[in-house]
Amino acid sequence: MAVDHVKNLIIDLHDNFALEQSSPSALQQQLMQQIKVHSHNLDEEEPITPNFTDTAELLLEEIREDHPKSAAIIKEVINILANMGI
Question: Is the pLDDT of residue 31 over 80?
């Protein structure tokens, strides 16, 4: 299921951040917090927030050069969500 796949990718993203550096930059932490704002349980209403894809794209640009593995995971999440119509 796509939802489970995205959840696993987000877990992988957190793991990669932990492996790639001792602590994420302040901007990375801020962007990851913004991504968390967009998530909700399936039985809850969708939060009204800035566009999730825009937030993920910002994070992708921020980490692309220094963290290619994490960037690849974020890109995969963006692609899966786009295929889902999100």
Answer: no
Confidence of residue 44 (pLDDT cuts 50, 70, 90): confident
Per the structure block, which two tokens stand in for 73? Answer: 């995971």
Lookup: tokens for 16: 């990669």
pLDDT of residue 1: 64
Helix, strand, coil in percent for the chain, rounding step 5:
70, 0, 30
For residue 80, the 8-state DSSP code is H
Calpha distance 83→71 (Å, rounded): 18
Answer whether 86's CB lies under 8 Å from 72's CB. no
Give the pTM: 0.50
Token representation of residue 37: 């704002």
Q: What CA–CA distances, in Å, run from 73 to 3, 7, 39, 49, 69? A: 15, 11, 17, 22, 6
